[in-house]
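User: Run a structure prediction on this.
Assistant: Running it now.
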Amino acid sequence: MTRVAIIAANAIMRSGTEILLSKSGIPPNCIVTFETVAEFLNHPDLQGFAVALLDDEPYFNNIEATIEQLLQANSKLLIILLSERLMVAYIRSIIKQGASGFIYKEGEMQQSLPIALSAVQRGTVYLSPEVSELLLNNEMVSLGGLNKRDIAVLHLMAAELNVQEIAYHLHTSDRTVYRSREKLREALGGQTNEMIVDAARQQGLLEDA
């Protein structure tokens, strides 16, 4: 079973993230919380952690060095940043440094967390829908008027969920998912789900690790 570390200076953030992980099916004994990166690095079994959810608030000014420090301690650690900073250069720099994912804290974390954990463990970089939408707008690519829901559907397609599973996660109907998938097909030029996801990666909306 995946062992997950939550590193957050804010106690409410730690407990809230822990609750969301538990609701997603991760056993409480597989979740360990830490107040600081230093505390995490002093844990006697660092290699036992597969994923670290890092709230970037105290580490914003030296985030690249922090990521490097974590990966030096455990080269197989999958780091997912929890951040309220929607800045293109910042997001690209932390992914380039070796982070495996980026979740916008002000978004739908309850939906994003389990999808992110699944994606990064399959070797795919996870960007929450708000982040993908930001990168899409920054690239100034005309993609047929895609909205936030369409981007969310795209991420779930990349996570290999079927239409019914996507509808369940987004609390919507199968018909709405089919409509978003058709918009993605037209915008990205792919006929199959695999082609759509590949095209999205080429546009920088999804990235492989």
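Strands lie at 4-7, 31-34, 51-55, 78-83, 101-104, 124-127, 207-208.
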